[in-house]
Design brief:
The chain has 9 helices and no strands. By secondary structure, it is mainly α. It has a single domain, classed as NusB-like (N-utilizing Substance Protein B Homolog, Chain A, Orthogonal Bundle), CATH 1.10.940. It is globular and about 45 Å long.
Length: 157
């Protein structure tokens, strides 16, 4: 990590910009995995070699992908209560964002829910359909209210 990147790291050593890049790369990897199949280990290895990962948090990138893979059945099951169609019918970008954010909301409680929602919305704006971010925001807002009820209540105040 260069000194330029270090100056933006928080006192706990987490670089929010590197994490954002990790989420974007993770979405691209999940998208490819959803469309092409294969193992997540193969996707991770492919992205390690083909993508510019030097400015991303590689450990977090891999945690996200391994976590989505390991918890996919639970993630999809939990998301079903908040979506208006079968998970498989959701646009692949939006589905990938929802799975990624659901993993963070359910299993990475060290990441504030507002960060998860903001990153999901911004990533969808960047890669998804024109109004995809409003769908993602609505689903995740309801999910966070249930899965992180105490945190959401404290933030809303």
């Amino acid at each position: 990590m260069t000194s330029k990147h270090r100056q933006h790291a928080r006192p706990d050593g987490i670089d929010p910009a590197a994490r954002s890049r990790s989420r974007r790369r993770a979405l691209q990897a999940i998208y490819a995995w959803q469309l092409n199949g294969g193992s997540m280990a193969q996707v991770i290895e492919q992205f390690r070699h083909e993508q510019d990962m030097e400015v991303a948090d590689l450990q977090y990138f891999e945690d996200l992908l391994r976590g989505v893979d390991a918890e996919l059945a639970r993630i999809d099951d939990e998301l079903r209560q908040f979506v208006d169609r079968d998970i498989a019918q959701i646009d692949p970008i939006e589905r990938g964002v929802l799975r990624l954010a659901a993993y963070e909301l359910l299993f990475r409680i060290d990441v504030p829910y507002r960060v998860v929602l903001n990153e999901a919305v911004e990533t969808t704006k960047r890669f998804g359909a024109d109004q995809g971010h409003t769908y993602v925001n609505g689903v995740l807002d309801h999910a966070a209210a249930k899965w992180r009820a105490a945190e959401v209540a404290a933030a809303r105040g």
